[in-house]
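Researcher: Next entry in the queue.
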Amino acid sequence: MNDRFKDFFEVTGKALKESFAKLNKVYIAFIVILIRAFYQNYRFTGMFSRSMAGGLLNYFIDAAMLCFVAQALRSIVVYGNSGKKSIGSSLNNFLNPILRTVFYTYLLQMLIGTFQSGFSFSLYMLLLVGFEILFSAMLEEVYINSRAGFDAIRSSAKFVCDNIIPYGLFSLIFIIIEVYFSYNFTFQLAFGLEKAAYILLFAIIQLFFYVVRGHMFKYLNDHPYRQRKFMRS
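Model: Structure for this entry, 233 residues:
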């Protein structure tokens, strides 16, 4: 177990080093993540009705925004550039795989929602957190490994299980911060400068975790645990 935590700090350190080396490349990613952060806030506070038509509209808008996030992150993590020239190709490159993948996550979220009435609140929240952790590598599977649909969902779950201490723990930290911000700031405040400032801060945090997690995924994907352990010995 000690080696697992040593592995966590080593992998995280490498991902942080790679991320900070590309700070001057993240401005396009920050813009698209900030726009998505504002949209997510309004989606959860009633920007669109909760009708079937509203849900379908949310599905397509969220998928389209994820395409821009995926393109910007691929430019930084995979190619080491800002993505200024390629961001316009986001929908062409990712709309089909993102739509197929998000479709399965929506189905799984609906399935989990059916257990809400039968479970205690604590157990239901644990189920939701487990879902978020297992599928936290979904976006990386799409923009790094070029997977889509159920294959991306399945591969994300396997990847997280195989790397539960470095990647799963890092994802859990982000999920806790995301929930804390959502329920203590964005949901509790009426729109104004204060709320906009919190959304801006949350977008910066999202950018940090997305970029570091992308580098972490890339490194873990290329170097299995046994190989990393051998390299440390």
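Model: The chain has ten helices and no strands.
Researcher: Noted, moving on.
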